[in-house]
Amino acid sequence: MGTQGKRILLCGCGMVAPPLIRYLLEWGAELTIASNDVERARTLLAGNRNGKAIDWHADDQASLETWVGEHDLVISLLPAPLHARVATACVAAGRHLVTTSYVSDEMAALDEGAKARGILLLNELGVDPGIDHMSALEMIHQARANGKEVVSFRSYCGGLPAPESNNNPWGYKFSWSPLAVLRATSASAEYLANGQRVVLDGNQVFEDIDHFDVDGVGRLETYPNRDATAYIERYGLETAQTMYRGTLRYPGWAETVIALKALDLLSPKPTTHTAWNRLLSARLSITSETADNTETDTSSLLRALAMFLGVEEDSALVSRLAWLGLTNNEPITGGDSSIMEALAALMQKRLGYGPEEQDMIVMRHELKTRRGNETETLRAELLVKGEKGGDSAMAKTVGLPAAIAATLVLDGKIVGAGVQIPITPSIYQPILQELANCGISLNENIVP
Predict the structure, then answer these.
(1) Per-residue pLDDT tens over the stretch 266-293
(2) Do the Cβ atoms of 399 and 431 come closer than 8 Å?
(3) How confident is the model over 151-184, as pLDDT tens digits?
(4) How far apart are CA 297 and CA 284, in angstroms?
(5) Matching CATH number, 131-253+354-385, of 3.30.360.10, 3.40.50.2000, 1.20.1290.10, 3.40.50.720
(6) Sign of torsion over alpha carbons 290, 291, 292, 296
């Protein structure tokens, strides 16, 4: 399938790694996985003679630099804040890099050095960001080739439980890092709506929601996803009056995030409380002795919670928080690091997928064009479901684009230098073509 003997270093082997690893091994790579969970890495390699696992922690920069130099290309599936460390080692060693995350300021600062060495630091090669960029640009460039002017572009994406597995009050389960999901709730957002720029801080984002229906899924809510205006120039949409990128969830997610923030449960500060009802009681100032109580009256806590949030005690919002375990004696684990990390651990425990449950990825682009006096709206949708007992939809749509990009770089079919994202035809066309071969593509139709 590919070029034998190419050496790839994979940093991290989290929830999205399995299809990426299989793809690279089938392509013929000699794959090394560097992970702090070396047993999982060995399991994912399944004894393949072209794969090996090494025990590595992200703060060991010296070992990283050595291993980077021993490979032809590096893929980082580490948490986003750690990519720049890997990229720095790649530039120093003269090795290409692929990541699935947004370009951070630290990554962008490496652009000049990477160009000087002819090194490609290719980011945003997941699903969102990743497939969203590539499929959007394919639509936009095709519209221009047909002599049409883009006047509006709206894009939505979300990873959710498939309807048949949507069986908890939250309407959500984790197919990737819970901590990354919670950290993302602090991101600000910006978009263009009918020529007006809308700027939102991390709290306002979840107050700016909309809803629409998706065939086979039902009603979803959307809220703004980071700075969509940053892509106006990158997408070549200077004439567009609307540029919006949104995250999709089942209804109720946004109000729940607002509640978690109001309760200061997304705090980076540690806590000394040992149970969630005690921490919540302290937040609501039910009693000054809450931290020392061994038991908290649940009914009083529910009443105080509803009053604090300005909702009825039997509301869906209160039910969600109670179902998670925040109003009972559920132990807090990881609270000595931060309340957010403790909450992520609790959510991972309660909001995980069962072995036969399926997640899904939903993506929608809406492109409004004008040619002369005629306007047209083109809609493209992607719906990918996970496999029962197999790869999740998130793993397939994040892992495969990164794996495909890595092989294309090593095959010399994607060339370039510096910090880049997949928005040029020479990068996105071969990736989209191979994704289609893997059964991942958007269906397009004209909106009446």
Answers:
(1) 999 999 999 999 999 999 988 544 434 4
(2) no
(3) 999 999 999 999 999 999 999 999 878 998 999 9
(4) 13
(5) 3.30.360.10
(6) positive
pLDDT digits (tens, 9 = 90+) for 320-375: 999 999 999 999 998 889 999 999 999 999 999 998 999 999 999 999 999 999 99
Parse the chain into domains and list their residue ranges: 7-127+394-446, 131-253+354-385, 257-350
Measured CA to CA in angstroms, residue 231 lies from 144, 236, 263, 415 at distances of 17, 8, 34, 22
- Residue 198 CB partners (closer than 8 Å, separation 6+): 190, 191, 192, 208, 224
Strand partners, 382: 363
Burial of 299 (0-12, 13-18, 19+ CB in 10 A): exposed
128 is catalytic: yes
Task: Please give the single-letter amino acid code of residue 298.
Answer: T
Joined tokens for residue 307: 């009053």
pLDDT given for residue 175 in this prediction = 81
Q: Residues 37, 59, 60, 128: which is the catalytic one?
A: 128
3-state secondary structure of 218: strand
This prediction has a pTM of 0.90
DSSP 130-185: BHHHHHHHHHHHHHHHTT-EEEEEEEEEEEEE-GGG--STTS---SS-HHHHHHHT
Three-state DSSP at 267 gives coil
